[in-house]
Write a structure and sequence with these properties.
There is one protein chain. With 318 residues, this protein is α+β, with helices and mostly antiparallel strands. The protein has a five-stranded antiparallel beta sheet with strand order 2-3-4-8-9. A four-stranded antiparallel beta sheet has the order 1-6-7-5. A two-stranded parallel ribbon has the order 10-11.
Length: 318
């Protein structure tokens, strides 16, 4: 699923297009998009209530914490946008034909501009909801994200407090990095890369690791996510795209993941170090986990060629 750099790339595009825009209308094409994966029984009544709630509201901006993104409505509520595995926020002219996986449409007006913001989700693992904004860790967030910790790219991120919490964890350090209540936004890809850059074994127990080495991991995680964000994120296939249909330019290289030589000139992540491979061989469970990571559908299409896209403004977006 999209991690912090990918969600931030989407947020920036959405914010550029929607900040200050008025929602003049909305349509829920598939009511299932309003329920979480554990509660998909959403009927047309709930869809109608959702449309009434968002219509006539003004979007003041797009916000994010970790992998959670939301649109602030009139400064009171947040329209939570969970991208899930394949969710996309796409900007289109109203006259454009809708993608077959379009699940919801927001009709926006900003000055003389009229356009649609469409939520496209092939697998329907993502969802939309309107929630009150509540204070959590130094800022307002949607109520369902109150447990999510600040991420390393936030101004309110407290590295000393995070280091102290990380040092108390008696779990493997990679598992601690993936704990969104401790530090948000770090997923499997960037946890692997951060540990590789810091030279720390992913199965090392956090509480038994020196503080300066824990600090090196956090620094590496911040750096690698910043590197990914600078080029629009990491792309596996055409599921993760920005509002204009463009995907990130930091491609995962299968040959590098498998320990082979990477292609020259290619920016890559998710390197498999020798010590990581030794850890994988220690148990059948770990071996199956690595096989799932390395041979999943995303990695099979990692080598993809970039396709240029047309300009957003005034042009139909593919």
């Amino acid at each position: 699923m999209p991690e912090l750099p990918e969600v931030e790339s989407v947020r920036r595009g959405v914010d550029e297009w929607t900040a200050g825009a008025l929602i003049t209308g909305a349509e829920v094409v598939d009511p299932r998009i309003l329920g979480t994966t554990s509660a998909r029984r959403v009927d047309d009544t709930a869809a109608a209530a959702f449309v009434r709630t968002v219509t006539g509201r003004r979007i003041t901006g797009a916000q994010r914490r970790g992998k959670f993104m939301w649109l602030t409505l009139d400064g009171e509520d947040g329209l939570l946008v969970h991208l899930g595995m394949s969710g996309q926020m796409r900007v289109h002219l109203a006259a454009e034909e809708a993608h077959r996986h379009t699940r919801a449409v927001f009709r926006l007006e900003r000055g003389e501009e009229r356009f649609d913001l469409r939520f496209v989700d092939q697998r329907i693992f993502g969802h939309l909801s309107v929630q009150p904004l509540v204070p959590a860790h130094g800022r307002l967030v949607p109520a369902s994200a109150i447990h999510i910790a600040p991420d390393p790219l936030e101004d309110v991120f407290d590295i000393d407090a995070t280091l102290a919490a990380l040092a108390r964890k008696r779990s493997p350090i990679k598992a601690a990095l993936l704990d969104q209540t401790l530090i948000s936004g770090v997923g499997n890809i960037y946890a692997d890369e951060a540990l590789f850059r810091a030279g720390i074994h992913p199965l090392a127990i956090a509480a038994r690791t020196r503080r300066n080495r824990l600090a090196a991991v956090l620094e590496s995680a911040t750096t690698v996510m910043g590197d990914a964000l600078a080029v629009g994120g990491t792309s596996f296939d055409d599921l993760y795209v920005n509002v204009n249909g463009e995907s990130g330019y930091l491609d995962i290289d299968v040959e590098r993941v498998e320990g082979s030589r990477a292609h020259e000139g290619r920016d890559c992540l998710c390197r498999a170090s020798a010590m990581r491979r030794q850890a994988i061989l220690r148990s059948d469970l770990a071996r199956r986990a690595l096989d799932k990571q390395l041979n999943g559908p995303a990695h099979l299409v990692a080598h993809r060629h970039k396709v240029g896209s047309r300009s957003l403004r005034g042009v139909a977006c593919a």
